[in-house]
Fold this protein.
Amino acid sequence: MGLGILIGSIEMTLPGNILFSLGLCWWAFGCGLDLVFLRRSGPILWTLPYSANLTLRQIGLMLMLAAIGINSGATFLSTMLSSVGPLMFLSGTIVSLLGGMLILFIGYKWMKIPFVLLIGMISHHPANLILQIIRHKIKFRLMAMLWSILCC
């Protein structure tokens, strides 16, 4: 621990007179990497189970989104109180609703995808909806990958 704090307190000068240091928490990061590399020391297993990994990821995402929401609340309020704010909100709502309804109609009537699957695709992640529809309809993974590269 002492060696990690010592190494973390060393400052280096980068081009443009920018000071860089690894920081005082470097020792924890370095120890974590070393222990994961070992994977096991005696009866102690240093890897994280998959379910715990997913839980920690979700908690991290929730905290990040909460911080973003707290920081952007005042900006959102000032935008909504401006002259163009309600128009922007209304146009975004219309685009989202029409896009979702159009995809539901095309997917159910034309592509014959089960409605429950379509609802799940839309509610899960709208940005991946077209790629999921293509994967359902087209069996070629290369074609779906090319479509996702072109559209995203």
Notes: The beta strands are 11-14, 18-21, 40-41, 44-45.
